[in-house]
Each structure stands twice: as structure tokens, then as C-alpha cells.
Design a protein that fits this description.
Elements (H helix, E strand, L loop, with lengths): L15 H4 L2 H14 L6 H18 L3 H6 L5 H14 L4 E5 L2 E4 H26 L3 H11 L10 H31 L9 H7 L1 H24 L18 H23 L1
Antiparallel strand pairs: 1-2
Length: 266
């Protein structure tokens, strides 16, 4: 399960998506997530599917690697499906006591499942094709206008970047601790829910100790380098929009225009 978590990882490849400005990918991801809730009909999902899988193909990130990250959120996925399946009123197809499955519930459960899957795939694709440093610069630039109302934009972007950077490190540390505990006779796979929860204690304690130690080392390193936030800081490679970035904005506009047009017509 630990190896299946791919959130926050960067997949190096030579593709147009990798070379896009991080601001384009951030804005594009946000617009794609919003677009998933603009429609509720079959053709809207067809257009979203073509758009998403087209970008995945262009990114050159293996589809199996992207789908691998869905395993870590399978419980949320199943809970969403079951909740919508049994709690949506409408034409009853099957009932047992207070449990009822309706035609409307099946339809909403399928659509919500697709939306949740596409939301995770689209968000993961952004981290797969953007390095943590570029993501930090993009976040800081996109949130730049908030500086006028005294929002610490640079600090927020830095915290998010550090969090994303630490995810793979902590996952690797967790895997090492699990292997060490398993070699000493620990069992993480068998037993009921309570037993499995108790078996996680020998894993969580050293993991938290390691995380706090790494955080303290990072804080000391930043302090030793006289880090004092983003005020007055410059960048070695300032972000610039290129032709491919403007073309990407055009593709996003066409995608949103098609969805809005379908909503009007249907």
C-alpha cells in the first residue's frame, strides 16, 4: 500500500506538458476541476475524458503509474459510491429494510465516481510533470495579488512545496521501518481492524520521530542560510510565458467553451 502512493512525486520525461510554465498547469488543473462540476450529462463526460486522456498521452507519463495512485484513495472512492447509491431518492429498483437502491442513485454514483477519479488523475498529473521548485514559483506567482492584502504568499508556497517534497521521503522512510519491523516479527497484514490498528503503533512512533528530526534539521539549515521569507528575494530563472503556454490557454478555452455549449444545447 505504501508503494502505491504516488502523490507528490515527480516523473521526469521530455514532453510538452513538462515544459509548460507551472502557472499554466496550476490554472489548467484548477479549471479542469471546476469543469467537472459544470455538467451532469453523458456528452460532458465524453469531452472531459477526451481532454484528460489526451493530456495524459502527451505528458508521456505511463498510465499505469498514474492509476497506481488511485489505490491509496480507494476507501474514499467506495464510500462516495455507496453513499450516493443508497442515499439518493427516486425510482426504487431494490430495497431491504431502510436500504434502497434507486435508478437516480445508480446514475449519480457512477457520475460521482468518474468525477472523483478524474479529479485525482488531473491533480496527480500536475505534480508528476512539475518539479517542486517550479511548483513553488508557480504558486507564488499565481497567488501574487494576495500580497496586497498582506497574505504571506511566499511562505504559503514554500510550505506547500516542502510538504510535497517530504511525501516521497516519508513514504520511503515508512517502507524501511515496515521492513525492519517485519524482520523482527511484526505483522501488519493479518487480523481484524483493531489488531491492525494496534500493529501500526510500532510503525508510527519511529516515523513521527524521524519526521520531527527532519523538520528540525531543515529549520536549522534554513536559519543557517539566513532565510527570512520572500521579501526582497530574486529568482535565478524567472518564469516566462512562451508560445506553447499561450496555445495551452487556448486549448483550455476551447475545452471550456465546448462544455458550456453542450450545457446550453442539452
Amino acid at each position: 500500500m505504501i508503494r502505491d502512493i504516488t502523490i507528490g512525486q515527480y516523473y521526469p520525461a521530455d514532453s510538452v506538458i513538462h515544459r509548460l510554465d507551472p502557472r499554466v498547469k496550476l490554472i489548467g488543473t484548477l479549471l479542469f476541476i471546476i469543469s467537472l462540476f459544470l455538467f451532469n450529462h453523458f456528452w460532458g463526460y465524453v469531452v472531459a475524458s477526451i481532454y484528460l486522456f489526451g493530456i495524459i498521452k502527451i505528458s508521456k507519463v505511463p498510465f499505469k503509474f498514474i492509476v497506481k495512485g488511485l489505490k491509496s484513495v480507494m476507501m474514499i472512492f467506495l464510500f462516495t459510491l455507496v453513499f450516493n447509491l443508497f442515499m439518493t431518492p427516486g425510482t426504487v429498483l431494490w430495497s431491504f429494510g431502510f436500504l434502497k437502491i434507486t435508478w437516480e442513485g445508480i446514475r449519480i454514483a457512477i457520475f460521482m465516481g468518474i468525477r472523483l477519479t478524474y479529479l485525482i488523475l488531473g491533480s496527480s498529473l500536475m505534480t508528476f510533470t512539475t518539479t517542486p521548485n517550479n511548483l513553488t514559483d508557480g504558486l507564488e506567482s499565481v497567488m501574487g495579488p494576495l500580497n496586497k492584502i498582506k497574505v504571506p504568499v511566499h511562505e504559503i508556497a514554500m510550505m506547500m512545496s516542502i510538504a510535497l517534497r517530504f511525501i516521497p521521503i516519508l513514504l520511503e522512510e515508512t517502507d524501511k521501518i515496515m521492513k525492519a519491523q517485519t524482520a523482527r516479527g511484526a505483522d501488519f497484514e493479518t487480523g481484524g481492524l483493531v489488531k491492525r490498528a494496534k500493529s501500526m503503533i510500532p510503525l508510527l512512533v519511529p516515523l513521527f520521530v524521524s519526521a520531527f528530526r527532519r523538520a528540525n534539521d531543515l529549520a536549522m539549515a534554513m536559519e543557517a542560510r539566513c532565510y527570512q521569507g520572500g521579501h526582497g528575494r530574486t529568482k535565478m530563472n524567472p518564469l516566462r510565458y512562451y508560445k506553447r503556454d499561450y496555445l495551452s490557454f487556448g486549448v483550455m478555452a476551447v475545452y471550456l467553451g465546448v462544455l458550456i455549449g453542450l450545457n446550453i444545447l442539452l
